Amino acid sequence: MDAVPRRRHPLALAVRTMAAALRDTGAATPALTLAVTLTVTLLAALAAPAAPADAEPPYAPTASPAARPVQPASATRETPHTSPVRRRVELGGVDVRLWPGTRQVVTVNARAGWHAGVALWRRTEQHGWQRVTRARDGRTGYGGLVPARQRRQGTGTTPLGTFRVTETFGLADEPGGSRMPFHRVRAGDYWVQDNASAYYNQLRNKRQGGFRWRASGYNSSERLRDYRGQYRWSVVIDFNRPRPVRHRGSGIFLHVNGAGATGGCVSTPRGFVRQTMRRLQPQLHPVVAIGR
User: Fold this and answer.
1) What are residue 19's phi and psi, to 5 degrees?
2) Average pLDDT of span 141-168
3) Tens digits of per-residue pLDDT, 46-59?
4) Helix count (H) and strand count (E) of the chain?
5) Confidence class for position 215, pLDDT limits 50, 70, 90
6) 201: buried, middle or exposed (CB in 10 Å: 19+, 13-18, 0-12)?
């Protein structure tokens, strides 16, 4: 927009004319010229229109509230995948530490002795956490339960805590509909418990070498075909994996019940293991939470 010319006060015009005339005739002295200049400045200020009392202040751009990042109030409770901090939730009396993106949980609620209640849970945006199936006759290790970092190999203890589920195996065919990585056990398959092996706490065939599969005692590895009933179907619990600590223990699974307590694993009736393997989905980041 073009500027609007400002009207000058009549007295200011007269003084300016007088000053110009004095300069033209040479009659002006420095003191008189200074006096005339100050008078002109003062009159110009008095002649300027005053701003109305209710005038708006000059516009100064500010950041729009909508442009500022807003953290949802429920971010720490409902969107664990956006936060590096593992969120906690209680399911079936078990304290669960969810990994980012976790939507499936198997809870193991240890009771008296080596008995436990085991349940599979699924979370949806519409209904939240819901129990899908459960087994009342769950079992844990004959040595009791211990914090994961305190566990020692060969003690028959079940580790407390929350652990990822990344793979399954079995001597029988893979249950229909299963989507987790599955390994059909074949002759020569062992679960490595040799503490001197680079393959400690991994499934490996003796033809591949790299572990003492003939060893006996403390460093003996577990030949999977020796447990035809228990390992019909098994879910690998990622305790002490994928970066294992030697002597902390290996081969902690969710498998089919045997005659009594386990050697540190979690076991349930066969139907529960089969249903769980059919429902677990890698994209839901399943975990197993063991508590008491």
Assistant:
1) -65, -40
2) 98
3) 444 443 333 333 33
4) 4, 15
5) confident
6) buried
The token pair that represents 99 in the structure block: 């990994």
Q: Which two tokens stand for residue 276?
A: 């769980």
- Single pTM value for the model: 0.71
Place of tokens 């006060």: 9
69: which residues sit within 8 A by CB, 6+ positions away? none
Question: Cα separation of 273 and 279, whole Å?
Answer: 10
Q: Which two tokens stand for residue 288?
A: 């197993």
| Residue 139 neighbours by CB under 8 Å, 6+ apart | 114, 115, 116, 257, 260, 261, 262, 266, 267, 268
Q: Determine the Cα–Cα distance for residues 100 and 87; give it in Å rounded to an integer.
A: 8
| Among 109, 138, 156, 118, residue whose Cα is nearest residue 252 | 156
What does the block give as tokens for 136?
A: 């009342």
Which residues does residue 122 pair with via DSSP β-bridges, in sequence order?
Answer: 104, 130
The span from the CA of 41 to the CA of 187, in Å, is 107
Q: What is the mean pLDDT of the chain?
A: 81
**CB within 8 Å of 235: residues ≥ 6 apart:** 106, 165, 168, 180, 253, 254, 255, 273, 276, 277, 280, 288
Rounded CA-CA distance 93/86 in Å is 18
Give 217's pLDDT tier (boundaries 50, 70, 90): confident
pLDDT at 76 over 80: no
Separation of alpha carbons 168 and 156, rounded Å: 22
- The single residue listed with the structure tokens 């809870």 is 107
Query: Residue 83 is encoded by which pair of tokens?
Result: 């936060």
The pLDDT tens digits of the residues spanning 186-210 come to 999 999 999 999 999 999 999 999 9
228-244 pLDDT, tens digit each: 999 999 999 999 999 99
